[in-house]
């Protein structure tokens, strides 16, 4: 276990993972994941996860992998090394015979715990570290991979059972960093006037589509992870909560709808905004989503596939909670609570298929909604959906006893919950109970929104804003 | 000619009130208050409220009334003028025949709505305005009082019914500023090395007392204002919510218990703190509650009655949400949700008597708990109790239509809910459904904490920390 | 018990004075002043100086005297107390029999030396101190005045000789604060939308006037104080310096000329500005001198006499060094060096008459130049003239040995020299060798400019800018 | 010529060069350089200068060349591209037939003028630009080199004469960036915990040596460039100035002497420091020179050759002006003025030999003084020596007429002059009249100090501090 202070400035998703590390080392006790692993399946999954990381980094030059374009992002080579450090520290250091670290100082450089004295400064300095270079990191990965395979091969069954939980946690950890790697390099490339392109052409978009509504009855429902398969601790415990009848938009809000909001003075009307949000609008000059730029009257959007005119049929992405909330207010609606979202997802959609966003494995942007289905569309794998819920512990969540629970819940302050996963989320990584979280002002994650309405008796049937009406159920 | 704009990043409680103004002008529609007013009772109440403000300001010199010792506080004379401006603007300007403002520029100076060019800057500049002086503000108050009495005397019954709601809102608004005036001058006097005293000697304190626990059954309960008497809009609508069985501490945490926390490294152990809280502890050097100072090994506390050694039997006050949360974590407990607090208060304690804190009308600090009662002690009028709930809209709350709802919900972001009222709250001002709110780092309000436990099946009976055990019910 | 430290990032002029205190306690040694004082003349001068301070504060309410409208200014009552503290500390505490301080904590509150923990913060907090009030400060002054008169009356001749130097230093110190008191209250009143007026109507202005030039031969000249009468240490030693022939404008630049600069894009053309200056222009939005505001197309100027349309015949005031330098560049000229200014003043103008600005004892703004005189006009008592010289020690200046020299030269970094005195400078306070200094960006002091030209052979006769031509000598 | 605003945040040395560009395009007019160039000598010198840049970058990986470790430093690949852009813009674009830029956007990226809208932000973002990569920059250099050689080969004699001045300016510009490249990469490598080494072992140091003094008579002397060979405009015009007799230390202050200063409380005693310097000491925690670190009681110094124990016989380097001034005060001495330094260098040392620091072409640190010579040692090529002179225009310096002089003198504000050159300065680049300049708080340049004394009659012969005595001349 690691001593010293915790990287307080770390990005939420990163922290959430590492925090989980400390609490989920005893799967037998917590029952938080149930997959039965053999040496073969474990090694095979290990290879698969690890290969995907390198595949994502492959298009990037050593220089690309070095840059940190703002404190919230990390260099690509840091991600590649950090997830490797995780296996070296939590698996090899604990279980390898005659363990010796690959390089002493890597512990310091790639440990998101390390930032003892000045944590925020240190995180913001990841882009100041030129060495080890991208190639050196590749060597480090190769070394750890070989040792991991050796270890898995030589474990007896009892040890394997004990260790599989930690290794599986490492898989989910690395997947989170795969998503972050893409979000981060998207920002790195965005600040370059040469407008570099990460990957080939994007998919053709679907046709614009009318927003429908899906009614949900509510009542005394249960949310939280139900114990089948892996989860992070913040999805627990499953618990009861009461919901008045409500409705959810059957798809995400589109760029076209966002342009309507802008055309109607969305960024000029203080009355639509939360006070803190309005402070950002005026203080930082927000006029459009984060990656939009207007050239000669046309709005363009920076994507990993290049810079293109904004496509009105695609979901709007890279908007903050403040912007999502202002949009909902403008539309006469609101954002869903996380309980409403999860209950609807469980009831009406079920879990995402393991290959939910395999379809866009090479398409790094949200897709058009497709034709109406009579149910909820775009729940998984397009963009993280802001909810109206603050990120707080579930009833009954409390720190585990002893040092293992030292940091539980530490980030449950000042952030908002997002649900669903985005186009950069690895296939199979998300689920209905998954709780992501970011500060209300964050714009660089791939975020979007879905509207909600109702939630108190008598409200559900009142259409408020003619611009967004219709509905499947009626 | 005006140099710079005035005001407007008003403190939460202030905003909450003024926001209410715009939505509660039609009591007949909303039914949010039910008192039947006659010209006599209205005038009498008006005089009573207005006199209390002047009584609170009386011990303060013109210089005292001018100072703004940090951006969060406002000068005394600004409070006295602002509440007067409220009646002039929302009552006289609307209903007085041949209305003319007392002084044109007072609208600008004493209007907390004015958020034009640089609102935050302006608010922080209230202490830069030497004129009108304290005496001039007295003249302004006298003028408006005379006109208000004339107006009330001459209204016919229909107009009175229509206007009474706005005037009553002015009463509650002025009461909020009475509390703020005291909180603010407490800070102003605290920064003065001469250690000025606002008022005479404090009460003798009671003896230290053992913390007991009160069990609450929970279930599908209702919270929110029930429609009898006045409320602010954020207390509405009354709605159902589900609570697992839980228990509440039967009194507030004391200074003595806080000293135990400090002695056990409370401010040195990162593992007890929310991440943002730990950032404040290290960044701002927090070592004790806000108004405590250690001299020669003894802790002293600044109060409106002077600076005294910390009394271990009194409730701890002036701690932030972060500190309250860290304490609860240290104690193996948690803070209550606002629903738990309100449901318990309604069920077990009822509304505070109209004279709830009359007893300490001249005692401007929280009192000792007194002997155990078998129920909840210190619910109203000692210190605002931090809850674990973010300040968010109740289900079914949404902005009123039209301009009247412009600011609804605007501050429902980034703040935490507090309940109960404090020793500086005017008699009769608080109630079980009253929702106060401050940022999690605020320390200058008179805040404290009560512990909670349980909240999920099986947890209630497990005593966690021997330091805080026992309990009335067992 | 004290909350936080007080003071100490005192304003330059303040520091310069107090620094002088420590080096000039032995006039016999340094010969820096030569006035022969008797008990009668000393007491009479003491009364005169002290009465003028109270006279300047008389128009100001207790609230006016309390406000600190930005960190650079100090409250009026602080000035009144600080100069009193000077006599109590450096005279009474050293020479009074049975000395006891008037109030222990006043030493802390009114001592600009105290730089312990957080000096800059403390200075910026002078406006947070409501007590002692203005009346209490009056009591303090009365007490010290009585004791000072007693002391002067009872000294024998030897002691008087020894003490007179310190007391005379206190006179000059108090005069500096008289000037600061006015500069500071000018700013305090400027931020008030009620536009308070400090004093009655200003003088009628003279007619606009053509700028002439005065040629000076230069050569190996001497500058620095010549030993007759009082000086501060930074005016020493008198020393040789070499000047090429040069010329000086015979009067200050006027508001009218400044309007021409503005009309010609003065604040829009980066090429006219020093780099740091352009950073301020763009970063802080400078568009005109500090106290100017444009209303409906007309420029108005805040003065101690009220807010009036800008008078083109008066000297421009409240411009920074950056603005003065940009103006000179625009005009094809430059600012004079301090050696050029002093040499010309000595040679062509002599010392100011003791009553140099008595004429405007009740006129707190710079006056029009008056008709050409064939020499230098407006040298003393209109506005402090920016020079092109950095504030550095004269050759041969070095710290005195021992603690007495602790602060010598401490501020000789990062500031520019100004010469001449301004309309707020007390009569008799300034002289040809007087070196004032402020950071290049300071705008709240009463500053202006005079042009120079030449300074290298062949340059003097070349008229550069037709807008400013003519000249007495040609 | 380039429009738009100037990069205000650019480092002094960089700006000084580019500013020179605009004024020195007419060498025939200004006579500022006199070398006679032929096509052969010009091409040969071009190749030599250009090759050295690539040689300096050769040890650095693509990742090393990408990092910007603080706003003051620029990435290596930016330097390599920027000096290339200079030749493309000021030579090829003006004189090449059928000119077309190598890459349109390179103008934006490698133009230190480019930072139109937000200059400071842009400069600080050089490290955010991953592409073009280090290899791409090599291609750019090759392309421009080929075109430059073609151009030089095809010029007739008249065109060559006209163009040689600009090309020679490009040589000096590239040399300045060679020095900056090394200063910058020194910082980049210093922040890496892996402690990368730039180059092989350092020289063995000489033995410690006693400080001697060299007396200089002074009088009415001349300083400034005398017109033979190249100079920058800020070295002009040569002019008279008066100096009292003075003396200079015959060598630089050593690390050993600096350790004495530290041991005597140098960083703890406010009385030794300029006020602004003391603010940095306390605000930024300065305890030793910039690149020193204490490990287990021993001081280590980061160099381009690795991290070594501090060698007491070497000159102290990487100290700010504030530190140099505090040291001199502690030693009872002072820093020299720039006029004193230049006059002594001209009189007693002459110009540096063209190969002055060839000896340390592969040694990137200051060398020990070597044995006493009876004259001034270490004048050129060890470390830039802080003077007590503010960076201001020489008498008679004024902006050239027309656009060409737009930016003259722009940085003559808020900086101090340094003289002599340092171990990173290319051979042949410095001279006695060379004026370098940095803000008083800069520590990352390779700076040091030499003491001065005297300067006013009677002072020269008074030894002040026994710790530094002796002297060659006595």
UniProtKB/TrEMBL annotation, chains A, B, C, D:
User: Please, which domain of life does this record's source organism belong to?
Assistant: Bacteria
- Location of the region described as Disordered in the Swiss-Prot/TrEMBL record: 1-25
* Pfam families noted in UniProt: DinB_2, FGE-sulfatase
Q: Which GO terms describe its biological process?
A: ergothioneine biosynthetic process
Q: InterPro entries given for it?
A: CTDL_fold (IPR016187), DinB-like (IPR024775), DinB/YfiT-like (IPR034660), EgtB (IPR017806), Sulfatase_Mod_Factor_Kinase (IPR051043), SUMF_dom (IPR005532), SUMF_sf (IPR042095)
Q: Which UniProt keywords apply?
A: Iron, Oxidoreductase
Q: In which pathway does it act?
A: Amino-acid biosynthesis; ergothioneine biosynthesis
Which ranges carry the DinB-like domain? 46-179
UniProt domain Sulfatase-modifying factor enzyme-like: residue ranges: 213-452
> What name does UniProt use for this protein?
Ergothioneine biosynthesis protein EgtB
Please name the source species: Flexivirga aerilata
């Amino acid at each position: 276990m690691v001593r010293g202070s915790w990287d307080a400035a770390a990005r939420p998703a990163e922290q959430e993972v590492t925090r989980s590390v400390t609490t989920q080392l005893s799967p037998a006790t917590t029952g938080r994941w149930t997959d039965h692993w053999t040496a073969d399946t474990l090694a095979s999954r290990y290879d698969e996860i690890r290969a995907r990381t390198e595949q994502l980094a492959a298009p990037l030059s050593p220089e690309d992998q070095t840059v940190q374009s703002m404190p919230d992002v990390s260099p690509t080579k840091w991600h590649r090394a950090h997830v490797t450090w995780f296996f070296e520290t939590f698996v090899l250091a604990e279980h390898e015979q005659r363990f010796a670290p690959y390089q002493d100082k890597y512990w310091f450089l790639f440990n998101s715990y390390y930032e003892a004295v000045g944590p925020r400064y240190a995180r913001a300095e990841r882009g100041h570290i030129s060495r080890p270079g991208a190639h050196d990191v590749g060597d480090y990965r190769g070394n750890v991979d070989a040792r991991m395979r050796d270890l898995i091969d030589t474990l007896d069954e009892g040890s394997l059972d004990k260790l599989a939980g930690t290794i599986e946690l490492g898989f989910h950890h690395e997947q989170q960093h795969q998503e972050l790697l893409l979000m981060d390099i998207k920002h790195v490339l965005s600040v370059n006037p040469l407008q570099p392109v990460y990957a080939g052409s994007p998919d053709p978009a679907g046709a614009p589509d009318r927003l429908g509504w899906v009614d949900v009855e509510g009542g005394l429902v249960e949310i939280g992870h139900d114990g089948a398969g892996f989860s992070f601790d913040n999805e627990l415990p499953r618990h009861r909560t009461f919901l008045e009848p409500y409705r959810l938009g059957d798809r995400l809000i589109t760029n076209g709808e966002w342009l309507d909001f802008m055309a109607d003075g969305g960024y000029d009307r203080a009355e639509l905004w939360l006070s803190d949000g309005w402070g950002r609008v005026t203080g930082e000059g927000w006029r459009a989503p984060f990656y939009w730029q207007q050239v000669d009257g046309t709005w363009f959007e920076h994507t990993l596939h290049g810079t293109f005119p904004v496509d009105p049929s695609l979901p709007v992405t890279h908007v903050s909670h403040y912007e999502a909330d202002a949009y909902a207010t403008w539309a006469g609606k609101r954002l869903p609570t996380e309980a409403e979202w999860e209950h609807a997802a469980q009831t009406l959609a079920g879990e995402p298929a393991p290959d939910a966003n395999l379809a866009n494995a090479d398409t790094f942007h949200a897709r058009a909604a497709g034709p109406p289905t009579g149910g909820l569309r775009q729940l998984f794998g397009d963009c993280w959906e802001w909810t109206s819920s603050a990120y707080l512990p579930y009833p009954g969540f409390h720190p585990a006893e002893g040092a293992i629970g030292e940091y539980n819940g530490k980030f449950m302050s000042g952030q908002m919950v997002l649900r669903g996963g985005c186009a950069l989320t690895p296939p199979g990584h998300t689920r209905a109970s998954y709780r992501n979280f970011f500060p209300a002002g964050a714009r660089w994650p791939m975020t979007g929104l879905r509207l909600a309405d109702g939630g108190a008796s008598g409200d559900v049937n009142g259409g408020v804003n003619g611009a967004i009406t219709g509905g499947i159920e009626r």
